[in-house]
Amino acid sequence: MNAQGLNIGNAQELRELYRELILDHARSPRHFGKLPHATHSAEGINPLCGDKLKLYLDVDDASNIRAACFEGSGCAISVASASLLTETIIGLSEKEAIAWFTAVTTRLTHGDPTGEFSAVDLGKLEALEGVREFPARVKCATLAWHALRSALQQRPAPVSTE
Ligand code: ZN
Description:
The chain has 4 helices and 4 strands; from the N terminus they run H-E-E-E-H-H-H-E.
């Protein structure tokens, strides 16, 4: 996409760009599939919408995330969010990934009332911030992130939004 002509001050254009980014990731999710040598995995289920995904991680001995993949099915928001998650966390340490979990889930759920995360650059994930106006969609957008935390904490039971 050519961002040259994009006027960031134009909220309508920005929304359109975000919508395209979400649809692109929903149609062609990145890192989609099973990870053969996963060290961590977790399932996420959002019964309200029917989103179901499984996240796989390969974490090395130094606690760095070498690879991340996911599989499953769900609405465009849940799939795009999982796709963006894998792009974001590959190469991060476990600690950094948890910090992202906190920043993303807080911003998508509550905004940033205390200003705690105002300095956090969510990058492409800002495309998902529009879900905040739609509480039912927040669960779609944060599902993969809850699965991430669950995987890193090695929780045996699937996480459910309900
Ligand atoms: Zn959904």
